[in-house]
Amino acid sequence: MIQRARSLLGSSRTSISKPSADEADAPADDAPSSPAVVFGFRKGQKGPVYGDESLMRPRAHGTSDTPVQPTLRWGCDVKQADKICNFNRHYAERARYFMSTSFMRDLHRAEREGEKTLTFFDSNTGQPLFSAPRFRSYEKFWAESKAHGWPSFRDEEVNWDRVRLLANRECVSIDGTHLGHNLPDRYGNRYCINLVSVAGFPK
């Protein structure tokens, strides 16, 4: 497994304490205790769509045609978002950065109001990239994200019309936005995504 992406705040990511038993590797609700895995996926699960390095070619603004939106959801830092999204291939926001934002409050609101999923939009373009939770509860999505330090999505929660996985396991949008990395576990692919990369408002 590749090493986790390094933090913008230092040469290596802040270490994550070992999650408690109720937080660790929360699988989808329909995942069997001993999942049948084929090439890293559960049977019947839609796999990733791969892209090549041309997606991250130099453009007008780093790897994108435009900077991040002037205001981002959940109070995310615009300057940090622009650096991570458009001038970066390896670094990440600090572990559990999302817990310093209003993201958790919005997640609880969505669950309380009966929204089936919460949609995450590209911080540059406002295009939909992820929708979670799918085939699991809000509680399990939150527990897994908290345990690993970054919003953590599964294959079925990715909009593969607009997201691509590169050979180095970097996860990017088709518009050149750096999103995060694929860090698989025993349940399959797990996309650890920077909240600042998916905090855009829809367009």
Automatic annotation (TrEMBL):
* InterPro entries, A to Z: Mss4-like_sf (IPR011057)
Q: Which SUPFAM superfamilies match?
A: Mss4-like (SSF51316)
Query: What is the name attached to this protein's record?
Result: Peptide-methionine (R)-S-oxide reductase
Organism from which the protein derives: Prymnesium parvum (Toxic golden alga)
Q: What lineage does UniProt assign to this protein's organism?
A: Eukaryota, Haptista, Haptophyta, Prymnesiophyceae, Prymnesiales
Region (Disordered) residue ranges read: 1-36
